[in-house]
Amino acid sequence: MLADPRVVCESTITELAGTSASAASTVARFCQRLGFDGYRQFRAAVIAALGYDDARLGEFDLGEGEIDAGDAPEEIAAKIAFQEVRAIQATMAALDLDATARAAAALGGARRIVLYGAGSSSLTAQDLCQKLARIGRPAVAETDVHLALSRAALLDADSVLVGVSSRGETRETLDVLRAARRAGATTVSITNATSSSLDDVSDVVLRSAVRESRLRSGATASRIAHLAIVDVLFVLVLRLDFPQLSESLRVTYDAVRSRRGDH
Fold first, then answer.
1. CB 20 within 8 A of CB 31
2. Distance (Å, rounded) from C-alpha 242 to C-alpha 19?
3. Can you tell me the distance from the alpha carbon of 200 to that of 124, in angstroms, rounded to the nearest whole number?
4. All domains of the chain, ordered by start, with CATH?
5. Apex CA 207: angle with CA 202 and CA 209, to 5°?
6. Which of 14, 78, 86, 161 is the most exposed place for a label (fewest CB within 10 A)?
7. What percent of the chain has pLDDT over 70?
């Protein structure tokens, strides 16, 4: 790592162990001796220390990543690509996989699943709902807060409520999560906030890692990162009963194939 610190940026713990002819447990203990919780936190710190963004700016042939009103269309396109790739990479580097696995287990065993997000956050909720529906999970996404509150109030201990809020302070989302928690449901939230009111009403919090730019609010970049979290969450749910759930995916794909023009 001292000879080539960037190997950490590009490697999983298993890959780094192989490169260094050691074991993953050795790498984990090394990171803990340095004061980190584990390899994921250590890797995120190395990426930050190396100014990994500089390398990515070079890939996209950019001098800097902030969008300016005077940028040419091709510069704007390149900067948006850079920002969204950065959002996904940073989120995956920092994502709490234990928490994600707990959320997946709750979704996999739930009798009822309600998803809610206000504004642009509703798109993330709808995306997860669509994925869960493809494998027969009893999920519904609400965009109307009154309907979401009504559904949340009727949940129970065998249910899950997933709330999405980029800043973690959206009043409607917090109210829906509170209603679900009062009803006894497991509450899961997806957010970009490192600390927010969501923490007080959620059993599991899944956090993205997105920096806002001047001309683009966090909504677009956060949504890209949130969709990446949804993809990880969905595959973990799928893995719980892969033979049956993958068959559900095949059956639902066949059901809509005639509408796709590829039959």
1. no
2. 31
3. 21
4. 1-50 (1.10.10.10), 97-249 (3.40.50.10490)
5. 160
6. 14
7. 87
Q: Is 4 exposed, middle or buried (0-12, 13-18, 19+ CB in 10 A)?
A: exposed
One-letter amino acid of 123? L
Tokens 């995306």 correspond to what residue? 127
Please list the residues that pair with 187 across neighbouring strands. 161
Q: Which residue intervals of the chain are DSSP H helices?
A: 6-10, 13-19, 24-33, 39-49, 52-59, 73-94, 97-109, 121-134, 145-153, 171-183, 198-201, 218-240, 242-257
DSSP characters over 109-166: H-SEEEEEE-TTHHHHHHHHHHHHHHTT--EEEE-SHHHHHHHHHT--TTEEEEEE-S
Give every CB contact of residue 188 below 8 A, 6+ residues apart in sequence: 103, 106, 107, 160, 161, 162, 163, 202, 203, 204, 205, 206
pTM above 0.85, yes or no: no
Q: For residue 74, what are the contacts with CB-CB under 8 A and spacing of at least 6?
A: none
Task: Provide CB contacts within 8 A for 254, sequence distance 6+.
Answer: none
CB 233 within 8 A of CB 96: no
Q: How far is CA 259 from CA 18, 76, 92, 133, in A?
A: 47, 35, 34, 18
Which two three-digit tokens encode residue 234?
């969905």
pLDDT surpasses 50 at 217: no
Cβ atoms < 10 Å from Cβ of 51 = 10
Q: What is the per-residue pLDDT across 123-176, written as a single tens digit (0 to 9) for each? A: 999 999 999 998 989 999 999 999 999 999 999 999 999 999 998 999 999 999
CA 127 – CA 231 distance, rounded (Å): 9
More confident residue, 216 or 156: 156
